[in-house]
Amino acid sequence: MVMNQIRMRGLSQVQGSQNSPIDVKNTWTPENPDADLPRYIWANYGRNYETGAGSGSPAANFWEKGDYLMMREVTLSYEVPGKALSSILKNRIKGLKVYMSGSNLLYITRYSGTFPEVGGYDNGKYPLPRTMTLGVSATL
Questions:
Q1: Residues 6+ apart with CB under 8 A from 96
Q2: Residue 56 near residue 30, CB atoms below 8 Å
Q3: Is 29 helix (H, G, I), strand (E, B) or coil?
Q4: Residue 17 phi, psi dihedral angles, 5° rounding
Q5: For site-directed labelling of 125, which of 24, 68, 86, 107 has its Cα 20 to 30 A away?
Q6: Is pLDDT at 26 greater than 70 in this prediction?
């Protein structure tokens, strides 16, 4: 379980100085009595959903399942056959391998925050960077 503090802070708007998240449309109003979240008040010094300066107990609505499936690292490589090298390059290159490697390529999750791996309290950490590496290895 992960507590999405970024979502909660966006709905807590103590000064009204931030853009509100789309979740404000799912808060209680007389026209929307079956909403998932309590009533939202813009610039509410009572903190709307946060019960203290980050120290209180958040409402259960902000805890989400943090299950995820991650494609952490993938490497694909191709080694050019020796016969192809000898016929095309006349034995100038004895071995040639081309490869592509990637890390942190894909998250599959229903978690609405940015980084489900944190567990516990997600206070808006950046996710791991996605990287791609291309390379060639030649034997002369």
A1: 79, 80, 85, 136, 137, 138, 139
A2: no
A3: strand
A4: -100, 5
A5: 24
A6: yes
